[in-house]
Each structure stands twice: as C-alpha cells, then as structure tokens.
Amino acid sequence: MNPETITSISSTIVRTTGEAVKLVKTEEEIISQIKLVKENVKLLKTAIKNRINHQEEAENPFKLEGNLALLKCYLAKLQHLKHISSKVGAGLEDNTAEKKRSRYLIWHSIDSCFDGRVCTGLIANLSIKDPLCFLNKAFNSFQRKIKTYRQKSMLKVNVVLVCNFIKPQSGDTDMKTFSTKNHIIDINTNLKTWYRDNVIHVLTNKLEEFSEKDSGWALSEVLHLKVNINKFSPLKGGTSTYVSLPDFISRKKAVVNIENDDSFCFLWAVVSALYPSKNKHPERKTSYPHFKDVLKYDSIEFPIKLDDINKFEKLNNL
Questions:
Q1: Does the model's pTM come out above 0.85?
Q2: CA-closest candidate to residue 11, choices 62, 85, 82
C-alpha cells in the first residue's frame, strides 16, 4: 500500500489516539485530545466521500471505514471522560462514584464507502469489562436502529466486534476483530432471537475459540460493536424472490418455504397454506396447484407490497 494514502496515515493516527486515551489525566488534556480527534474524523470523512466518488481508488474502503469507527469510538470515550471529569470537578483519579452513574455505551453513525449500505454505526463501549455483558446491553441500541430501517425495506445485517488484547508475559498489545456473516431481517423478524443467534452466540463462540488456541493473548478491553445495515433486494441478480431459510429455522422442519423461480413467492405461500402438500416434498412448486388456477390477483404487482395485502384478501375472500 502507498504509505502516503489516507488509509495508512489514519491507521497510524488510530494507534496513537488509542494510546493517548489511556494516558490523559486532566480535563485540559481531554479537551485538547477531543479537538484533535474531531479534526482527524473530518479528514477520514473527506477520504470516504472521495472514495465513494471514485476520486481516490487507491484508498482501502474497509480500512477507512474501520479507522473512522475506531476514531469515533475513542471520541466517545474521551467525551465520556470529560463528562466524568467535569462532574467531579477535578482530574480522573477519584471518580469511581461518578463512573458508576455514567452511561455504559453510546451509538454513533459513521460514513460508509459502500453502495447499498443503509446505515453503518458503532456501539461504543464506555465502561463495560465483560464482552457478554456488553453484547447484551448493546441490544437495545441495535434494536432501535433496525426497527427504524426495516420499515422501509428488507435488510442484510452483520456486525464486527473490536477488542484489545494483551500478552501478560510480554506486555504486547494488539487489536482483534470478530465478525459475523450477513443475515436477513424483515418486518416480521424477532429481533431478540435474531440477535441472540447471529450476534451473541456467534461472537462469544469466536472469542472462546480464540482464547483456547493457546495464543497467549488475554482480553483487555472491548472497544465497540460495528453494525453494518444493508438493503436487501431479493430480485437483484435475477427474477426469483426465493430466499432460503436461516439454519436455525429450517432445522425445526416447521416452516414450508417453496423454492419458487419467479417473483410470486407470496402467492405460492398462500397456495401452500390453502392446499397443503400430500407428499414428501412440500418445498416444490409441483406439490401444489398453480396459483393462477386457484387465486385472484388482478391489478396487483409482484413482489407484493404491504399495502396490497388487504386488496388481495378481499379478492380471495380470505
């Protein structure tokens, strides 16, 4: 990588900022560091904007976005320290009581380099030591954002947990990231269950696996949870609206999910409910009468919109 790129420069800035956050003692030092971090945040926002406009192809979009997330995380920590310092009216030495009364975490939206990204945000950890406790407390912030965006479209969401580790014997430190795969969220998704299965279970397992590899690294700090919210368009790349079920649902054998190769998944679902399959392949279209022979759907466009469901029900006396 070109050492003069904003990406590489920002990586150095992130490292020095992380060290500075650990060293600040007085309110004056905190305010000075906040000012510096804000300037660097502006620098990265400009770099991301240029990357989106294809003016800076040499920049690494993943690194730019990740570094911006880290700077915003450190900014949140510094602002948190400033709040505590102003409350106690002194430095950061004797502020245990105020820390107990302060917030645990905070959401920050961040700029993204990627098309199709509805929102990128981070849930900055201000004071929680245990990763499981942090993930549990982060759910409310996660849920509020997802509820807002899933009203507009189906979503694909993944998260990245960022932590600091230390080797106790040598004192070496390093930052590690643990990510999840994209999983679909729609208006009917149970967010608590989705978050438990796709975030908490996955990330805690990855942390445990990392610790069990005899790497010598010990968790020293949970920094933040980065949340990537993408718009999901079932028709992209083809004409089928078929979406495979998540494993935890398909394993239960309790949901019929017809493998349609068209945009009429809604109609196939209705047919499967009205005319249950009598063979061992309820997922196949051939197990049911064709919807055009048993349903009325004149003047309704597909994939169906929520506003048209009442109309469909009236047409078919459902």
A1: no
A2: 62
